[in-house]
Amino acid sequence: MSKAAKCFQGGGFGSPPLAAVAVLAALALAIAPGRAEGVSVITNGSFESGYNPPTGTFRTLQAGTADADDIDGWLVTANSVDWICTYWQAAHGVRSLDMSGTAAGTIVTATIFSTIPGEPYLVEFYMSGNPDGTRGVKTLKVIAQTGSSTYEQTFTYDTLAKGNTRTDMKWELQSWYFTAQGATTTLGFASLTSTAYGPALDNVSVELVPEPLTLAGVLLGVGCAAGYVRRRRG
Are 219 and 169 found together in one domain? Predict the structure, then answer.
């Protein structure tokens, strides 16, 4: 039987202290090259900063104008979006978006971000809906353009069923995965609600998905090494 197999079965070299294993495993993961799990690869996911950010209720940003890239790290590419401040409760910070300004808008990351081909990424964001106007289903599409591939997924929020208000937006966390096909990726969001009362968006993040097998391998290696040291000292 191999030494690795003995470690899995709890035999051979004995078990190292759990605290030591945890510390060493965390250190090994921290110094492992090429991965950055738990760190969002996009900036300003909560739409907090930019040029002339709204301090009143909101500002409407129109595609094709000088205002289109006023939100740091983002660009309005179709119709318009409302950059919300005091008009309603944000999911994070003080600002968020109504993805339908005067009509269904689209916003994308203003610059491409680096991804690792073949690796899965987790997209998370908070979604609600403009509680004004006619209540009902608000639809939002998330789009990842990676390499030569495009991945899309739609999400809905029913303001009638949720009963959200400006002071209690009842934000919901949404999650989606895509596998990078190239070294760079662009993320976008598009409203599919054609009125001026669209889906609301806030607190966007994109993170490299951790590798369970890699973590297990690190724990195994650390456990065996610690057991070997203990045996050598005994």
Answer: no
